[in-house]
Structures are given as structure tokens and as C-alpha cells.
Design goal:
By secondary structure, this protein is mainly alpha-helical. The chain has two domains: 1-81, no CATH class; 82-140. It is 74% helix and 0% strand. It contains four helices and no strands. Helix 1 (12-41) packs antiparallel against helix 2 and helix 3 runs antiparallel to helix 4. The chain is globular, with a radius of gyration of 17 Å.
Length: 140
């Protein structure tokens, strides 16, 4: 199997479709991040209004919106979509989040099987991000 094909530039139609999906996800994250922040300001201390969750939602919405607009418009297409530093940090964060999710599930539930799929998918995405970063910085 040829793995290099996964690191080649995507066709324009693929960029537009993925840009629309990413824009919807960014809008979702941003909306609930702002909604939770407003609830926290008004005194709610429920889990969706936790400041960390609100910050993640707002930053995810802003970052996803930026990336989706770059995909949709083709703006700065000559440069990499995701900068190297962000790619490394996001990849390591996804791996750490996967481990944290599994440890939290082990502490709160009887079985890890319910959380194994999402945790493995997040961990695999993180490993793929670190591999892509490695390939970019080592020039392979």
C-alpha cells in the first residue's frame, strides 16, 4: 500500500466539501462555547459553562473557522493549511486527550469498551498529526 498518497494535496472539490463540514463544526463549537460563557457569567456552574470548556469551544470555533475559510476561498493555498507548530501541539494534545479520556472512563465506569472507539480514533488522529509534522520538518 502506498502511504504517500495520503500526504498529497487534495482536489479543489474535496477542499470545498471538507471546508463546509469544518465550517459547520466550527460554528457548532463557537456557538456552544459562547453560550456556555454567557451562562457562566450569569452564575451557572453546570458542566457546559465551565470556563475551560467554554475556552476550548471558542478557540476551536475560531481556529476551525479560519481553516475552513482558507479551504473554501483557496486563500494562501501555496502555504501549508496547518502550521507546523500547531500541527505538533494539536497531535500531542489529541494523544494526551485520548489517554486522559481512557483514564477518566476507567475511573468512572466499569468497562472501557464503551470509550475505546472514540479514544482510539482521537489517538490515531493525534499520531497522524505528529507523523505529518515529522515528515514536514525532516523533509521526507
Amino acid at each position: 500500500m502506498r502511504w504517500d498518497r495520503y500526504f498529497e494535496p487534495a482536489d479543489r472539490i474535496d477542499q470545498v466539501v471538507f471546508g463546509l463540514v469544518l465550517l459547520a463544526a466550527a460554528g457548532f463549537l463557537g456557538y456552544f462555547g459562547i453560550k456556555g460563557a454567557i451562562a457562566y457569567i450569569h452564575g451557572s456552574r453546570a458542566a457546559p459553562s465551565d470556563p475551560l470548556a467554554c475556552g476550548i469551544g471558542i478557540l476551536g470555533g475560531l481556529g476551525g473557522g479560519y481553516l475552513s475559510l482558507r479551504l473554501l476561498t483557496g486563500w494562501r493555498a501555496e502555504r501549508a493549511l496547518i502550521p507546523n507548530t500547531f500541527l505538533l501541539c494539536a497531535g500531542l494534545g489529541a494523544v494526551a486527550g485520548s489517554v486522559w479520556f481512557l483514564s477518566l472512563t476507567a475511573a468512572l465506569h466499569d468497562s472501557l469498551w464503551s470509550a475505546l472507539g472514540p479514544a482510539m480514533a482521537t489517538g490515531a488522529a493525534g499520531v497522524a498529526g505528529v507523523v505529518l509534522w515529522w515528515r514536514r520538518t525532516r523533509g521526507q
